[in-house]
Amino acid sequence: MATTRGGSGPDPGSRGLLLLLSFSVILAGLCRGNSVERKIYIPLNRTAPCVRLLNATHQIGCQSSISGDTGVLHVVEREEDLQWVLTDGPNPPYMVLLEGKLFNRAVMEKLKGRTSRIAGLAVTLAKPNSTSSFSPSVQCPNDGFGIYSNSYGSEFAHCKQTLWNELGNGLAYEDFSFPIFLLEDENETKVIKQCYQDHNLAQNGSAPRFPLCAMQLFSHMHAVISTATCMRRSFIQSTFSINPEIVCDPLSDYNVWSMLKPINTSGALEPDDRVVVAATRLDSRSFFWNVAPGAESAVASYVTQLAAAEALHKASDVATLPRNVMFVFFQGETFDYIGSSRMVYDMENGKFPVRLENIDSFVELGQVALRTSLDLWMHTDPMSQKNESVKNQVEDLLVTLEKSGAGVPEVVLRRQNQSQALPPSSLQRFLRARNISGVVLADHSGSFHNRYYQSIYDTAENINVTYPERQSPEEDLNFVTDTAKALANVATVLARALYELAGGTNFSDSIQADPQTVTRLLYGFLVRANNSWFQSILRQDLRSYLDDGPLQHYIAVTSPTNTTYVVQYALANLTGKVTNLTREQCQDPSKVPNESKALYDYSWVQGPLNSNKTERLPRCVRSTVRLARALSPAFELSQWGSTEYSTWAESRWKDIQARIFLVASKELEFITLTVGFGILIFSLIVTYCINAKADVLFVAPREPGAVSY
Amino acid sequence: MTAAVFFGCAFIAFGPALALYVFTIATDPLRVIFLIAGAFFWLVSLLLSSVFWYLVRIITDNKDGPIQKYLLIFGVLLSVCIQELFRLAYYRLLKKASEGLKSINPEETTPSMRLLAYVSGLGFGIMSGVFSFVNTLSDSLGPGTVGIHGDSPQFFLNSAFMTLVIILLHVFWGIVFFDGCEKKKWYILLIVLLTHLLVSTQTFLSPYYELNLVSAYIIMVFMGIWAFFVAGGSCRSLKLCLLCQDKDFLLYNQRSR
Question: pLDDT per residue over A569-610, tens digit each?
């Protein structure tokens, strides 16, 4: 054998081959969705994860391991089924598929902390009935960030007097060490249960046989411990690293505000200019990320305020009113008053055209859709009324409200019998800064009437917005529900009250909110955002923001969100004027006489479809609607451990997905490995022997004088 | 199915090929070069068949249904024919190359055509095995196993054993094919082509993996015995080797010359 170079060993060739092999493995691994992968996994596409949120001191939410959590599936439909998961089952860890009605505090207490037996949780959507309730929020929302504390109003602090959210179980503010996902699609839930029935059911008490149906959930969160820790780590990364790895983002968005009479936003109002503030909140939340229908907790209130704004703008002597009216929609109130605390901070530091001194009175809309027996309650703050002048102002305010409400028999304004604390509202942040006279209008006297406060079930059904069957979407859009009529009445009361508070005298009774507007807004925000009216009021590049389902009201970290944009443009459409400027003039109105970018905001919107339904007729809408940044002052001042301002932040993540597949037993895997080793060793031995005896085994053909190997 | 199955299936499919490489090819750089050239020829043959396959698919407009299955069968048959064609082409190339190499350095002994037959067969086999199995292997690393849609849960093991048999078959086909070319016995080429077609079309019998595997292994045993005899082995040499009487045989051989 010509093996003079045999001693150098197999280095160059074998290294090359190994490299080729590993390269092809990597390349094959990069192929997504190939047919073998489709044979193994069924991805679950319509799911919502539970993510990690952090505040100054704590982390809440859920966490999975970095390469996902895998567990054998077990369907829990009754509480007894939990026994298998917690003690009896022979193949831990288990992935529990929980019925929606069992997703309560008792069951979660049992599951929490048992990470050796529980790999994760998947919750199905339940059908809420008339007696059930589910609120994952705490019983005393935004405690510690309002006006009542141990040093000021201690008898009202920590909801000692009135527990606002009585039905709250606080699950959304707990920290779980396993992933929890919501299964939004009925069909996917059926597929999962079918897989479970085919493979995982034990036959007559014995253990179920492999392969078993399993589920894997990926939701690894990068931030830990608290906002202070994660912001510090992000800060260090962005300062010293070339490729910074940010781990969390503060919750932020924009507040929407507009004035009844236009003001110069580049300057500030004179101290003599008095403003009546009408405020409400835009956002809500739930246990799961970006699922927040918020019908009663947010939508009904801001829809009412939108209708009131439209009605007030139609009054004929608006331009001559002695006081101005500011409509403001705060974003982020769910998370310790992000929007209102930022607005107060800006007002105090001169960054907002309206100052705290300009505020004459404050009317806030709380939750207003679930009124029992026509009552609309007026809540005022007892602590600030200890001051005589404030007490008189509040008294005047209440009298004005009652006078305006007298003209609307469907709404009965009621005062509280005894001094009661303010419910969680933006007014509390303003009162922290200055004693102003304010009132919160709500449908509840004591605790909330909302049985699904800040949960996934706070949908259109919760406020009785239902439509007859077999109607087209266009018919549904214009169908006036009873809820719409009720909210229109509340809007009428609010608009008339604001008119009187602004000093108007003549046309109070002619101010009327339009139920058609209210029902179209309710349909768009709660049932189907992609409708003809919403499409006509938005800018062209925002078309894709409208889904075929309802809009979600979670504040999120990218801004502005879909909901903020839609509310901004709805307010512009309802209170603004269509001008006949061209597109270029609309984008730059400085050259047009009588138009001023400091006074007004100009936007080029799509407009309605023309009569052939082929093209849109865009137009320029001029309004006083603007966006104001709603980022907590704690992040502006870099006080990440602040107890004064909201410090909520959301963790970042790379990959969130869920999938089901079959798993084989550990014994089969081990057998495969040993068989592989066996074949390798056997073939090495046989090849060595054959190679050593090759010149005996393989006789070369006799050629005189030639040597073959 | 996790790392255990990944390594187990990798060793089952590529263990013998690795052993053959380590002990017979890696010692001589010239053999490595011929191995890699053989692998390259197989790759080019696959490229050509995939070009044809793509054209046919464009012509039939990617419609779904039974026509896709017929197209697949047609594609496999075409690919087998092209692979054997490239084996013939490699033989021609090696023939020309060994004449050229002999003229460049006459003292240096070049590998014989029988050895090159074995090396080229191994090259074809390794590349074919890698191409067909690496994709499946990478999916076996994940936590799941095949079966949720009703397929057999032994998919990975079956694929690994099938890959093993294909690699060994390519080695034996290479030896037999080159011998047929050398001796100008063209019916041998036809037999190689027919057995290759038989083994490939049998894979369409899935999910009846057992039948498929057993018949493939039987064909491999027959081809192995044929290749052993073609390569110069005989019953006598095998008996001598097994009874450890080889030293006497060598001495006898040397004396007789």
Answer: 999 999 999 998 899 989 888 888 888 888 999 999 998 888
What is the ipTM, given to two decimal places? 0.92
Question: A192 at the B interface (CB within 8 A)?
Answer: no
pLDDT of residue A539: 92
The span from the CA of A545 to the CA of A524, in Å, is: 12
Which helix (DSSP H) or strand (DSSP E) does residue A405 occupy?
A: helix A388-406
Please provide the DSSP assignment of A74-98 as one string. EEE-SGGGHHIIIII-SS-SEEEEE
- Tell me the two tokens of residue B6: 């990944």
C-alpha–C-alpha distance, residues B54 and B63, integer Å: 13
Question: Comparing C-alpha atoms, which of A482, A404, A417, A413 is closest to residue A443?
Answer: A413
Answer yes or no: do A17 and B231 touch at CB < 8 A.
no
| Gap between the Cα atoms of B166 and B128, Å rounded | 8
Determine, for residues A40 and B108 on separate chains, whether the beta-carbon distance falls below 8 Å. Answer: no
- Which of residues A215 and B103 earns the better pLDDT score? A215
Residue A532: CB atoms within 10 A of its CB come to: 15
Within 10 angstroms of residue A176's Cβ, the number of other Cβ atoms is 22
Nearest to A647 by CA among A64, A225, A34, A322: A225
What is the H or E stretch that residue A429 is in? helix A427-433
What residues of chain A lie within 8 A of the CB of B142, using their CB?
A: 40-41, 661
Query: Cα dist. B183→A191, A522, A537, B177 in Å?
Result: 62, 88, 85, 10
**Chain B residues close to A669, C-beta within 8 Å:** 1-2, 4-5, 8
Q: Pairing relation of β-strands A649-651 and A275-281? A: unpaired
Q: What is the dihedral of CA A346, A347, A349, A352, to 10 degrees?
A: 70
The answer to whether A456 and A291 have CB atoms below 8 angstroms apart is yes
Looking at beta carbons, which residues of chain B come within 8 Å of A14? 21-22, 26
**Is residue A114 pLDDT above 90, yes or no?**
no
Quick one: CA dihedral B29, B35, B39, B42, positive or negative? positive
Reported as a pLDDT band with limits 50, 70 and 90, residue A7 is very low
The closest alpha carbon to A134, from A553, A460, A462, A453, belongs to: A453
Q: What is the pLDDT of residues B31-60, one digit of tens each?
A: 999 999 999 999 999 999 999 988 888 888
**Which residue of B27, B254, B256 is the best one to mutate when testing the A interface, meaning the one whose CB has the most A CBs within 10 A?**
B27
- Indicate the Cα dihedral angle A260, A265, A267, A272, nearest 10°: 10
CA distance A72 to A51: 23
Residue A126, judged by CB atoms within 10 A of its CB (0-12, 13-18, 19+), counts as middle
CA distance A328 to A314: 18
Phi, psi of A649 (to 5 degrees): -140, 155
Q: How far apart are CA A614 and CA A410, in angstroms?
A: 43
A42 touches chain B (CB under 8 A): yes
Residues of A in contact with B9 (CB under 8 A): 672, 676
Measure A100 CA to nearest chain B CA, in Å.
Answer: 26
Measured distance CA(A222)–CA(A625) in Å, rounded: 37
Closest residue in chain A to residue B32, using alpha carbons only: A13
Please state the pTM of the whole predicted model: 0.88
- Under DSSP, is residue A253 helix (H, G, I), strand (E, B) or coil? strand
Measure Cα distances from A620 to A262, A600, A603 in Å: 17, 12, 6
- Asked if the model's pLDDT at residue B165 lies above 90, the reply is yes
Q: Which residues contact A287 (CB under 8 A, 6 or more apart)?
A: A50, A136, A171, A172, A180, A182, A455, A456
For position A96, what pLDDT does the model report? 95
CA gap A452, A367 in Å, rounded: 12
Query: What residues form DSSP beta bridges with A649?
Result: A54, A250
